[in-house]
Amino acid sequence: MITLINLKILIKLLLILILPPVIGCILSGIDRKVTAHLQGRVGPPLLQPLYDVIKLFNKENIVVNKYQNVYVITYFIFVVLSLFMLLMKMDFLMIIFVYTIANTSLIVGGMSTGSPYSRIGSVRETISMLAYEPILLFYIIGMYMLTGSFKISKLAYTNKPLLYYLPLIFIAMLFIMTIKFKKSPFDFSTSHHAHQELVKGMFTEYSGPALAIIEVAHWYEYVFLLGLIFLFWYTSPIIGLILALITFFLEIVIDNICARLSWEWMLKFTWTIIIGLSIANILFIYLYNVKIL
Amino acid sequence: MAGISKNIMSKSPWVVHVNCNSCNGCDIEFLACLTPIYDAERLGIINVGTPKQADILVVTGSANYKNIDVLKNIYNQMPEPKVVVAVGACACTGGVFHSCYNVIGGIDEILPVDVYVPGCCPKPESIIDGLIEASRILEEKRIKIKNPDKGVAI
Amino acid sequence: MEQIVLLLLLIPLIFSIVFIYSNKKLYKPLSFLMFFICSILSIFLAYKGSLSIRLTGQIFKISEGIITLSEILMILYLFKISVKHHKIGIFILTVIQTIITLFTIFTPDKSEILTVGIDKFSLAMLLIINIVGTLIVIFANGYISEYEHHHGIESKQKLFYPIICLFLSAMNGLVVSDSLSMVYFFWEITTITSFILISYNGDDEAYKSGFRALFLNLIGGICFGVGNILLKKMLDIDTLSGIIQHGSISLSLMLPVFLLCIAGFVKSAQMPFQSWLLGAMVAPTPVSALLHSSTMVKAGVYLIVKLSPAYAGTRLGTVIAIYGAFTFFICSAIAVAQRNAKRILAYSTIANLGLIICSAGIGTGVAVSAAIILIIFHAISKALLFLCTGQIEHTIGSRDIEDMTGLIRIAPVLSILTSFGIISMILPPFGVLVTKWMSIEAAGSNPFVASFLVLGSALTTLYYTKWLGSILAYPVTELKAQDKKDFCIFFPLWALGFGVLMTSIFITPIFNNFVSPEVNKLLKKSTDMYIKRGEVVSKLGTFNEAMVFIALGLVVLFVILMRRLMISSANIKSIYMCGENNFAEGENYFRSWNGKYEKAKVSNLYFDNILDEKALTTFGYVVSSSIIIICLLGGLK
Amino acid sequence: MAKTVIPFGPQHPVLPEPLQLKLVLEDDVVVEAIPAIGYVHRGLEKLTELKDYEQSVYIVERVCGICSFMHSMAYTRGIESIMNIQIPQRAEYIRTILAEIARVQSHLLWLGLLADSFGFESLFMETWRYREDILDIMEMITGNRVIISANKVGGVTKDFTDEHIKFILDTINRLEEKIKDVENVFLNNYTVKQRLAGIGILTPEDARELGALGPIAKGSGIPLDLRTTGYSAYKYLDFEPIVDNHCDSYGRTVVRIKEIYQSFQLIRQAISKLPSGEIFIPVKGLPNGEVISRLEQPRGEAIYYIKTNGTKTLSRLKIRTPTFANIPTLLKMLPGSRLQDVPVIVLTIDPCISCTER
Amino acid sequence: MLDRMIDNVTTVEKKNLLEAVNNMKLKGYRFAAMTCVQENDIFELDYHFDLNFEMEHIKIVVNQTDEITSISKIFPAAFLIENEYQDLYGLKFKGLIVDYKGALYLTPNSPKTPMVNNKAE
Amino acid sequence: MANMLNIVLKNFLKKPKTRLYPLKERDSFERTRHKIHFETADCIHCGICQRKCPADAIKVNRAEKIWELNAYRCIICGECVNVCPKKCITMLNKRRDVAENKKYISIKKVD
Ligand code: NFV
Ligand code: SF4
Ligand code: SF4
Ligand code: SF4
Question: Which residues form the 4Fe-4S ferredoxin-type domain (chain F) (predicted)?
Fold first, then answer.
C-alpha cells in the first residue's frame, strides 16, 4: 500500500518535472512562430527553443566571475519548486514567496556580474518586481476572501470560478503577465530580442549552459504563470486551459502592437490603476462578503 | 533526435554583428536578412546583441586603428566554438578603401576569418549563404573541440 | 530560580561597576566573561521554564526604596542636563515627570506587592537580551576604539561599557517585571541610557539627536505614567497580567491601555515619533544594534503584544492593526529612497516594528504568534545587519550602499554575512519571511491592513535587493581595505549568522516552546496553528519551511554536481563594455571619447523625486497622528 | 550623488553603427553625454587625392551605403560645374528620381530603426518590408540594391525603360497605401507617442545655434530644405519644404514621414515630365578649379568642397555631411533625458556615422 | 546657383577671426562648414557660413604650429570640425567646448596628421 | 494601439512574405550586378581595366599574359566592363559563392 502511494507520488513528481518544460518549450516555440507570422514572416521551426537550448549546453562556459552561475541554479530550482508547489496545490502565498526567491536570485545574479548593462537591467527588474508583486498578493488575498483559505486545493470545492468575482484582478493579472513574460511594453529589464538600450539587460553576461538553464527555467515559468491564469477557472479545467491559452495569445499580440514603455510609466500605471483595480475588487468582495465555498 | 544531435550548432547559430569601417551598405543588408522578406530566424539565426551569447561574429567593414580593439574584445568575449564571417569587400580585403591611411586591411589581419562573403554590398542571399556556411563550420568546430584527436568527421 | 532572575539583574550591574574600575586591557576578557555568564544563565532559565515571583514584605520595601531612590536620581539627572543644555522642553517634561513620580510616591501602594512574572515570551526576550546583547558588547570591543579614533573623539569607553551593562540589566528587569511600576521604572532607565549613548560622540549633532530621543521618550514615559495611575486609580490594576485578566472591555480600561500603547509606540519609534530613532543612528553602531534595533525598541512592542488581549477583537485592535500596517508601509516606502545603510536599517526596523504592532492589533492566534516570532527573528537578523554595517563602515569608510558596490571582493566573509542577514530579512525560509507569511494570512480578512502589508512587503524587497545586489556585484570598485580578522568582530558576526540560520531551521521547537504557550496564555485560546516537521500549519494555509530548506539543499547539491559543467570549467572573461574594455586599467574601465580610460559604474535607483523622504514623512505624520487623535477622541471601544 | 557612468556603444545592438556615448547618469537622468566617433574613419578624402576623378565617384559613393546615390550626385555635380558641363535634361531627371527613391529608402530604413530603438520589433519588420520594394526598384534599374553606382561625370549610366517607369509607379502607388498604415501607428499609437512626444526637445533657437539640418531643423520649425533652391531637376518640380512645430522626436518623425509622401509626389511629377534623349555626354579634359557643391541629403544639407588642379586627381575633397552637423545637437538634447530615451533621441537625428567620419 | 566657384571670400587676420565670425552670427548666418587646404607649409582655413542658401566665406591663413582660436563658443556646431582638423592636420585650436585632444579619429597607433602632405613638391 | 493591431492581424491572416531563400530562389533582375566574368580569349592584356578599377582589384600582367582578379576586393562597380576595349569582361547576374578562403582568380591566357 505504502509503496503504491509512493509510486504514485513518484510518478506524479516525474510528470511534474518533465511535462512542464515540454509544454513550456512548445509554448515558447509557438510564441516565436506566432510572433513571426504577426510580422509577416515564416519564423523558426516550432522546436527552435529546444535547438537553442541544446546548442547552448554545448557551448563553452564563460563567466565574469566564478559564482554567477550559482544564482542561475538557485533560480532554476526555485522556479521548479514554485511550479511544483502550484501543481501540488499548496499554499498560494507560500508559492509566491518561493517564486520571489527565484526572481531575487536572478536579479542578484544579474547584479553580481558587475557589468553595467546587467546591473541596470537588474535594477529595472527590481522595479518591475515592485510592480507585480503586490498584484500577485492581492490576487491571493482575493482568493482567500472568496474561499476562506490560502490553499489552492480548496479551489476544487468551489462552485463558481474565481473569475466571476475577481474580474478586475484578472485584468490586473493580464498586465502582470506582460511584465513577467518580458513582453512589450514592459520588456525593459531584458527582452527576447536584444535590440534594446541595455543589450540583453540582466542576462548580458550569461552565456552557454547558464543561459540554457535560464531558458529551461523560463519554460517552467511559462507554465507556472499560465497556471496562475488557469486558477481563475479552476472549476472547469477545459475552460481554464482555454483561458490560459487565450491569455498567452493575447500577450503575444500585445507584444507586437506596443512599443516598449519606460519603467516609470509602468510604475505609475501599476501603482495607481492596476493596484487601484485590485483593491477595488477586494473591497467589493469584503463589503458584499461574497463566498464561493 | 538523432538529427538534432548531429547538427547541434548549425540549427541555432546566434549572430553578433560588429560594424567596423563599414559604409553601412553591408550593415543594412545584414539587417535586411532579419526582416520578413529574408527572415533569417527561419534558420534559427538571431541577432543577439552581446558577444557572450553569440556563435557567429559577423563583421562588416575593414579594420582601422580605433576599432581593432573593439573587434578583438568582442571576439575574445565570445564562447567557443565561434566562427567569424567577413561580409563585404571591405571586411574581406579592405575593398575600395584598402589603401586609405586609416585602413589596416581586411579583418583577417586581426581575426581568423572562416567565411568570406564577397560583394559590395553583398546581397542578402549571399549573406544568408555565408551564415549557413558559417553554421556548418560551427558544427565542425564543435566536433573538433569534442574529439580533439579525431579530426573532422563529415 | 529566583536567584537566577536576580542574578540576571545583578550581573550586568556588577559588570558595570567592574568596567568602571577596570582598565582598558580587561574590557575584552570581561565582555567575553559576561557573554558566557549571561547566556548560560538565560539559557538555563529558559530551560527551566516560566515562573512568577511575588515580592512582599521586607524585600518589597527594599525594592520600593531602591526604585524610588533611583527615580529621584534620574529626575535630578534630567534636570541637570536640561539646565546645562538649555532644553526647555526637556525641563517641562521633567517637571511633569516629577509630578507623576511624586504622586506615585505619595499615594502609597496598598497591596504592598511587586510581582515578577516570567512567561515564555519574557524568556525569549531574556534570551535575546542576554545572548544578542552581550554578543554586541563583545563586538563593541573590536569596534569602539577604532570608531573613536576614526571620529577623533576622546575615549569615553569608561562610560560606554558601564552604561551598556546598566542598560542590559534594565532590559532584563523590564521583561521580567509584571508590576507596572517596575516596568515603568526600567522603562525610564532605558530612556536615559539611550540618551547617554546617543550623545556618545559629544558633538552638536549627537546632542541634538540625543535630546530629541529623550524628549520623545519622555513623552512616552509620561503617557506610561499617566496610564499607570489611571489603571491604579480607576480599576485598581497594577500589573500587566492584571490588565489581561481584567475581563470587561470598557472605556476606563481602553484609555489607559491606549496610553500604554502610545508609550510603546514611542519606544518602538512608530510613525509620528519615529524621528528619534533616525537621529539615534549617529550613535556608534553597537549602540544602534543593541538599543535601537534588537532590544530597547522591542520593549515597546513587547508591551503592546503583552497588552494585546486587552484590545484583541475590539475596534482599538483594528485601529492599532491599521496603524501598524500603515507605519510598515510608509517606512518601507521611505527606505527605498535611502542610501545610508544605517538609515535603511533604521527605517526597516521601524517598519518591522510596525508589522509587529499590526499583528498584535489583529489579535488572532496566528497574528500574535507572528508578532512574537517576528520579535525574535528580527532581533537576531537586525543585530547581525547592524554589526555588519558597522564593520563595513570600518572597512571601506562609508555607509553609503553605493560605496559598498563590489564589497564581496574586498571583504568576502563580511559580505557573505551581510548578504545572509539581508536574505534572512526578505526571503523564505528564514524566520522573518515566515512571520510575514503569517501576518499576511492573518490580515487576509481585513483588506486595509492587507493592502498596506502587501504594498509594504513589495517595497521591502526592493530596497533590500538593491543593497544585496550592490554588495555582491563583483568586479567593480577597487578599494584598498581588506577583511580585518579581528576575533572580537567576527565572533559575534558568525554567532549571529549562525543564530539566524539555526533559529530558522529550528523554528518548530521555538514555536512550540516559546510562542504557542504564550499565545495560549495571552489569548486564552489555541493559536490556531502549529508547526510540525518544518511545516507551519494554520487553519488558512501551510507554509512548508522544510521544503524550501530542501530546495536550498538541492541548490547546494546541484552546484556541487554541476561544478564541472557550470563552475569549474568556466572561463573567466572580461565584462561586456560594448567592446571598449581596457584591461590595463582594470576590468571595468572603458575607453572614453577623449582616448582616456574611464571607470564604468552603476548606481541604483532611489526615486528621490517620487518617494521624497520629507513629503512622505509629513504624510506619515498626518495620517498616523490623525489615527492616534481619533482614537483618543473617542474612537476607542 | 553617486553617478552611473556607462559606455553606450560602439558595439551595441540598438546602434547599427559604431558611435560611442559616454553617459553619465544621475538616478536615471542623463547629465552628461559626450559622443565619441572614429570607429569608421577611413580617410577617404585623402584617397581621392590618389585616384583619378572619375574613379572617385565610386569612392564617394561608399562614404555611406544609405545616402550613397546622393553623395555621387553631389560629387559629379561639383566636377561638372568645375568643368562647365551641361548634362542632358534626361540625366538630370533620372538623377532626381533616383535621389528621391533613395530618400524614401533612407527614411523607411530610419523609421524601422526608430521603431527598433523603442523596442517595437513588429513595426521595424513592417517598415523594412516596405523598404524592400524600394530596393527592388533600385536593383531593377541599376543592378544593385544599396550602392547603385548610377552616376558618372557627365550624366548617369543607367537609363529608365518604360517597364521600369511602370514598375516605379506601381510600387510607389502600392507603398503609399501601406505607408499610410504605418504612419498611423507612428503618429497615433499611444505607446509610440509616449516614447516620442516631448522627448529630445530642440527649440528652433537651439537648432539654429547648433547648426541643425534637414529633418531635425524641419522638425523644429525651420524650413531648411536645399531642394527649394532648385538644383538638378528640382527647379522644374513643384513642392514646399515640410516643417513641423513639435520640436521633439515626434516632430522629426512627422517630418520624415511626410517627406516620404513628398518624395512620392516628386517622383510622380518627375516621371510625368521625364524628357527623352541622351543620358550622358562624353567628358573631355581635366577639371581645374574649386567649387562648393551642395544638395539635400535625406538627413540634410551635404556640402562638397572640391578643389582640382588640372591633373587627373583631385587636390582636395572635403565632405561635410549632414550628420556631422547634426551631432552637436545631441549635446543639447541628451542631458536631461532618461536612459531609455537615449537610443530614441540618438536615432531621431538619424545618425550616419560613416557619413560623419568618412 | 549652388555649384559655383567660391566668391565672396573675406580674408581676415588670424586675430580678427572671432570678431568676423561674431559679425556673421549677428547677421544671422549659420555655420555651414569649414575646409582646410594645405598649400605647402601654410594652411588655409575657410569658414563657410550660410544664410538663406547664400554662402559667405571667411578665410584665415595659418601655420601648422599656430594656435587658432576656436569659434565653438560662438557656433557650437563648429566643435567637431575643429577637432577633426586637430586630428588630421595637427592644428591647434584653443577654447574648444569639447576638446578631444587628437583622439576624435586617431589613436596612438594610427598615423599622425594623416592629411598633411609632408613632401611638398 | 488598434492601428497596429490591424496591421499585425492582417499579416497573421495572410501568407508570410518571406522568400524561402535557400530552398526557393527568386530570379535576379536582368541588370543585377553580381559578379564579373572574364573571357580570356579576346583579352589583349592592355591593362586598361587595371588602371580604371577603383578598387585595384584587377592585375594584368602583360608579359605573362595573366589576368588576375581579387574577387574579394572587387566592388562590382562595372567600370572594367565599360572600359574594356575588347568587351571581354561582362557582368553576370549570378552570385559569387561565399568561400572559406579568399584566393585570387588568376587566368593565364594560353595560346
Ligand atoms: N543623408 C545622409 Fe548621409 C550623407 N551625406 C549623412 O549624414 O547617410 Ni549615411
Ligand atoms: S563592402 Fe562595400 S558596401 Fe560593404 S562596407 Fe565596404 S564599401 Fe560598404
Ligand atoms: S581591358 Fe579588357 S582587354 Fe584590356 S586587359 Fe582588361 S580585360 Fe583585357
Ligand atoms: S567591377 Fe569594378 S571593382 Fe570590380 S574589377 Fe571591375 S572595375 Fe574593379
Answer: 34-63, 65-94
Q: Is residue B41 part of a domain?
A: yes
In Å, how far from its chain's centre is CA F41? 20
Point out the residue among D13, D115, D189 whose CB comes nearest to the CB of A199: D13
Residue B117, domain extent: 14-146
Q: Strands D300-309, D288-297: parallel, antiparallel or unpaired by DSSP? A: antiparallel
Which chains, if any, share at least 3 CB pairs under 8 A with chain B? Answer: A, C, D, E, F
D298 lines ligand 1 (CB under 6 A): yes
Report the number of distinct structural domains present in chain A: 1
Number of structural domains found in chain B: 1
Specify the CATH number for the domain of residue B58. 3.40.50.12280
Q: Specify the pLDDT at position C579.
A: 75
What HEC string does C592-623 produce?
CCCCCEEECECCCCCCCCCCCHHHHHHHHHHH
Ligand 1 atom with least separation from CA of D74: 5
Shortest CA distance from C608: residue in chain D = D27
Helix axes C516-523, C365-396, angle to 10 degrees: 130
Rounded alpha-carbon distances, angstroms, from residue E37 to D45, D176, E64: 12, 46, 12
Question: What average pLDDT score do residues C458-483 get?
Answer: 73
Dihedral sign, Cα of residue D81, residue D87, residue D89, residue D91: negative
Q: Which residue of A has its CA nearest to C459?
A: A130
Q: How many domains does the structure of chain D reveal?
A: 1
Let me know if residue F10 belongs to a domain. Answer: no
Range of the domain at F94: 30-108
Where do the structural domains in chain C lie, given as residue ranges? 56-114+142-311, 320-544+625-637
CATH of the domain at F64: 3.30.70.3270
Dump pLDDT digits (tens) for C141-165. 777 777 777 776 766 777 778 888 8
CATH of residue D48: 1.10.645.10
pLDDT-derived band at C477, boundaries 50, 70, 90: very low
Which of these, D16, C42, A288, lies nearest to B32 by C-alpha position?
D16
Strand order in the sheet with D314-320: D288-297, D300-309, D314-320
Residues of chain A contacting F22 with CB distance shorter than 8 Å: none
DSSP of C244-299: HH--S--HHHHHHHHHHHHHHHHHTT-GGGTHHHHHGGGS-HHHHHIIIIISHHHH
Give the SS3 label for residue C345: helix
Q: Evaluate whether residue F6 is within a structural domain.
A: no
DSSP result, C292-336? IIISHHHHHHHHHHHHHHHHTTSHHHHHHHHHHHHHHHHHHHHHH
Is residue A208 included in any domain, yes or no? yes
